[in-house]
Amino acid sequence: MDRQRRVARLVEHARSPRHRGVIRDADVSMPGGSPECGGSVVVYLKGDGNGGIAGLSFTGEGDTISQGATDLAIEKILGERMTLQEVLDFGYDGFLEEVGRDVVGSRTRNATLGLSTIKNAARRYLRERGGAVRRAG
């Protein structure tokens, strides 16, 4: 995908996010924010009880990069039916490549705000439910 398409995709996800909203019966509601960009998100995660994800969404405010990238991260996680452990193992570098390093430039914190918050939600879910959290390494 060329740069123009990556920019258009990010803008589209920021303007019309597919995964924005509150999951009322979420197991975890995890806030996250970045002082650098002024962006903030709250991630809502519902586990399936077997290490998988039954629901994942977000609310938030911020720039095109932070909001669009959060929606893109959720789309990838749900689309690939990642487990909670796979979310924790999902690398920031790979995600930045998918979003487009040339698109986010030096604003990598903005681009990874949502993914970081999703990972924190997964850790909390596993910790509170007695599951082990294995660090990728």
Record keyword descriptors for this entry.
single chain; 137 residues; alpha+beta; Sufe protein. Chain: A; 3-stranded antiparallel sheet; globular
Individual helix count: 6
Order of helices and strands: HEEEHHHHH
What's the total count of β strands? 3
List the uncertain runs: none
- Main β-sheet description: 3 strands, antiparallel
Measured as a percent range, the helix fraction is 40-55%
The CATH topology is given as: Sufe protein. Chain: A
Provide the residue-averaged pLDDT. Answer: 92
Terminal Cα separation, in Å? 29 Å
Q: In the CATH hierarchy, what is the architecture at level 2? A: Alpha-Beta Complex
Radius of gyration: 14 Å
> How many domain units?
1
Please characterize this protein's 3D structure:
By secondary structure, this protein is α+β, with helices and mostly antiparallel strands. It has a single domain, classed as Sufe protein. Chain: A (Alpha-Beta Complex), CATH 3.90.1010.10. A hairpin with a 4-residue loop joins β1 and β2. α1 packs across α2.
Secondary structure elements and pairings:
Layout: H1 3-15, E1 28-34, E2 39-47, E3 53-61, H2 64-79, H3 84-89, H4 92-99, H5 101-104, H6 108-128
Antiparallel strand pairs: 1-2, 2-3
Concise synopsis of the structure shown:
By secondary structure, the protein is of the alpha+beta class. The protein has 6 helices and 3 strands, in the order H-E-E-E-H-H-H-H-H. It has one domain (3-128): Sufe protein. Chain: A (Alpha-Beta Complex), CATH 3.90.1010.
